[in-house]
Write the structure tokens for this entry.
Amino acid sequence: MPMRLLLVLCFSLLGMGLTNGAALALTCEPSIQRNAKSIQGEVVGGKVFSQRVNSLWVFSLEPALYGWDIRLRDGNGMDLSQITPPFRTVPNPRQIYGWHFRNAANTDKNSGDVNAPQGLRLFQFSPSLTGTGGFRPPTGVPGPETADRDNGRGALTVLDMGLTDLEPGQKARMNYLKFQICLTWPKKQEQIIEQQNSKSPVYLDEERETMYGCGLDSKSYELSAWILPRWISGNMDGHDALDEIAAITRKSDGRKGIAICRAGTWISLIGYDHKAQIPLRTNDGEPRTEKYFSLAQYLERMEYWKMDQSDKGKDRLILGRREKAEVAIYWDGKQFSHELLWVVVEGETK
């Protein structure tokens, strides 16, 4: 069996996950307490692989003499992963080198005589290193290292690889790597609170104060979270101030609606004008006037809403029915208007 195929088979089996770290790399789902980012890619010898994790960090595989080095850098180039032990011995899990996967004589695969991490690379990173002079490893007698719960964690799984310099006595180099990686890091407390609030139907006092202070008539309308999240923010008119959006109900008849507080000053109500109508569309995109229905009726059947951005760069509110239709609410410069984005009629998208 060719050596590369043997190695690929070996690490494909390892990547199936005999450890919690491998399972993490394969699933990579966020939790209540932690963010998650999954990345999959491949890189060829001498090249750099890089991909943005978020607005602050970039994950990269940087070429080294025998393969690649894992790095997670902030906007100033600080390597946040430098906290990964071991600090005074080699190899480090962030080093993915060809000779790690070969025996000491470089005549066969590594059967354990070379002490090096294999197809699963677990490492740590610390967001707190940003703005500092870097990490200072602890002094004294080395001891077992444990991951701080405030640190980020990375799990890179080798999916495929290519090795060269396989002659006895040489040190093998890795010249091709296919991988997948999962990065997780703690959410900030405000993120957790915001996440919990988004799933709660109970309006906060400050939310009530914002909407009623903006002009919502408390005698006629009540804040009523008939859809979640109960509160959405966006810049719908293109100005600097945020527009706040909440689900409401009319007290007189229980009719669902939406209140938009624009720039903390002007209130607009969506769903109470029966003249506001939505057309179904024929296959050629032309309105079918006999199939108009009211925006108020649509709200009664709405199943989700979210903030999106139009091709003009302004935020717009998307009102959706799963696999059936989406309507956009947007600011046209004078007032809030609506547009049918798509609708499914008798199994076809119109």
Summary: Residues 191-349 form one domain.
